Amino acid sequence: MNEFNWQIKNKAKNNNSRTGVISTPHGQIETPAFIFCATKATLKSINTYQAKENKTQIILSNTYHLMLQPGEDIIADHGGLHRFMNWKGPMLTDSGGFQIFSLGHGSVANEIKGNKNFKNKKSLTKINDEGAEFKSYLDGSSKLLTPEKSIQIQRKLGADLILVLDECTPYNVSKAYTAKSMDRSHSWAIRSINEFNSSNNYKPTYGSSGHQKLYGIIQGGVYEDLRDQSIEFNMSNDFFGIAIGGSLGSSKEEMYNVVKHTASKLGSKYPIHLLGIGDPIDIWTLVQYGIDTFDCVMPTRIARHGSALTKFDQKGKINIKNSVYKTDKNPLERDCKCTTCINYTKSYIHHLFKSNEILGLQLLSIHNLNFMNLMMKDIRNAIKNDTFEIYKKKWIP
Amino acid sequence: MNEFNWQIKNKAKNNNSRTGVISTPHGQIETPAFIFCATKATLKSINTYQAKENKTQIILSNTYHLMLQPGEDIIADHGGLHRFMNWKGPMLTDSGGFQIFSLGHGSVANEIKGNKNFKNKKSLTKINDEGAEFKSYLDGSSKLLTPEKSIQIQRKLGADLILVLDECTPYNVSKAYTAKSMDRSHSWAIRSINEFNSSNNYKPTYGSSGHQKLYGIIQGGVYEDLRDQSIEFNMSNDFFGIAIGGSLGSSKEEMYNVVKHTASKLGSKYPIHLLGIGDPIDIWTLVQYGIDTFDCVMPTRIARHGSALTKFDQKGKINIKNSVYKTDKNPLERDCKCTTCINYTKSYIHHLFKSNEILGLQLLSIHNLNFMNLMMKDIRNAIKNDTFEIYKKKWIP
């Protein structure tokens, strides 16, 4: 059995980027890495062996969705999420906080990216010091998620890497609220750690000891002094990894500043995860500040709407429904070896989307997933070889 | 390159069933075999290598759908359907007649099975001696499909086995109309043969000479004397294979009688295809009359609605959405080696359907396709070993 470990392998000379290896009982993750969202224990149009075949290292599932459907006990009864969804590699689960926040405040993506046109929807949640109360989107029943409950559920799900429960603070609140929310998240983190430590012998997972490791989450919104407090808090506790959460500001610049500041203070001790960011341009920037892992629904979500990711020196993102692809007998990318590109043409995939045939969703999802995995591999190579700029311009403008 | 050939390998002692091999430039089909419907050049939720992996021998696509979207020229430009959809095995296309009939008279399935509650919809077609006029379901434009045009399109699609254009006569018409329609189908068959013979050097297909073989279609409805005329007509022409088409009556008994009568007169000279019938119970009966190949949308269509085929000694057909499967950690079938059953539990697939996750459609489709392929293999074994009744009771009541 592999033990958990975090090791930095290479550091770039000209920026703070680094390659590393996160070892888990289910295998190793070479970083920087992209974590694909299998929200409800599925990558939607593709299955787990298709994901593996196309170089996926790690996936994540959502505590919030799975506690409601099918319920954590059914998954635990299978021996954990790995067995339930037949994913044999490393896996992460979030704590559920992010989704409760999303239901409470509207679009998560809008919020963490500080969209100013954002309109508040009627809140579905009550957040107090005890935990977060929300209504099930399935049957409207009231549920309470506490730090202890989140850890108990994540123990049953059995992912390798799990998160403390936090309040994902929105952008459009005062500094005072951000500070208060941060303090609450810190007290929830302590309760998460205590629950985690009291249950460290739980053994639900597939082909492993069932050991899990806990990530803390840095809060503090766009305020450097609050971020510093949160960094100090998190570093004074015994976390395996650290995620950067909360509001990342209202512009790319603000996001980059928050991440740069936070990651530089966290240094090399932890693998650093950035929650919910996955745009290729952002990734190429943010690895330079020391981010090791990213997650986002983007690659598979845009695939289901007909968008394929291609390298910048080809076309960048394309919409396969565009009539120019009707007769295009080339693969989505000319040099791509994904199981879509070696087997199907753009013309064929265009036909599938024009015919509303669901195979199209599968084929584009496979390609986008492989694209992200190859891009992350090139990022690792760029860091190893100290040729960041040369590699980068192949992938993004 | 393999040449076309039809060879009978074994004949059962107690009935007219036989095993055989249809050789095509794209490989051999061991018969009796099931032909899966890739109507619009896709098996919908599964890709072609998943179909191959789960023992599929042959698929069929539809001239009617493909002439409208994407158009036969785009497919020909790829080098034919094999390349367009990346299917490297044997393939059949129908002539388009069946679908025009369907649009003209309502549900095809209702009609060929003689459903008495059937209500005529407004006809979308005009059928006359020249051909069939219909409105495109995409843009409402008028289209004319003639026997010559159907063969020209099928030449461009490049399937190994192609069909003459026929009028698929409905059940609810007089004997006089059935006779008139049969005569028209015969004259269309002659025109199909002439067009076929004049274009036998067309070479569009993937890894082969592009040679194709033509099937005739037996008409005559439920009338034995008309069926006899159509058998005589078809046998006097140079067809590679024969399909049994037209109305098969209003009851299983009537269908069985039509098929038994027709197949017994056709004998061993041709591979005999029965159009549009795929129920396991029907297949076990009809192979005993000498049917070699079947096609039907059923296995993949019911999968998309949550139904899995399982052997009779397990449960028969099950609906995975049923709450009894919520906690069922067994595969769909306990001894099944399909890529769904070796990887996923009923509980997981139940969860996917309850969550409206499209991976569920893929997983059930794979299982049902593998089920049909294994059942056909057992039918072949039953014929070889003359143990029809022993094998049969494993699969159907």
User: What is the alpha-carbon Rg of chain A in Å?
Assistant: 20 Å
- Major sheet description of chain A: 8 strands, parallel, barrel
CATH topology of the largest domain in chain A: TIM Barrel
- Unreliable stretches of chain A (pLDDT < 50, length at least 5) are 116-123
CATH first level of the largest domain in chain A: which class? Alpha Beta
Count of all domains of chain A: 2
Query: Helical proportion of chain A?
Result: 25-40%
Q: Largest chain-chain contact?
A: A-B, 39 and 39 residues
Structural class of chain A: alpha/beta
Percent in strands of chain A: 15-25%
The N- and C-terminal alpha carbons of chain A lie at a distance of 43 Å
Shape of chain A: globular
How much is the average pLDDT of chain A? 91
Number of helices of chain A: 15
What oligomeric arrangement do these chains adopt? homodimer
Number of strands of chain A: 16
- In order across it, which strands form the biggest sheet of chain A? 4-5-6-10-11-12-13-14
Which helices and strands, and how do they pair?
The structure is a homodimer.
Chain A: E1 5-11, E2 18-24, E3 27-31, E4 33-37, H1 48-53, E5 58-62, H2 63-68, H3 72-77, H4 81-85, E6 91-94, H5 97-105, H6 108-112, E7 125-127, E8 132-135, E9 142-145, H7 147-157, E10 161-163, H8 175-198, E11 213-218, H9 224-235, E12 241-244, H10 252-266, E13 272-274, H11 280-286, E14 293-296, H12 298-304, E15 307-308, E16 318-319, H13 346-354, H14 359-385, H15 388-395
Parallel strand pairs in A: 4-5, 4-14, 5-6, 6-10, 10-11, 11-12, 12-13, 13-14
Antiparallel strand pairs in A: 1-2, 2-3, 7-8, 8-9, 15-16
Helix pairs in contact in A: 7-8, 8-9, 9-10, 12-14, 13-14, 14-15
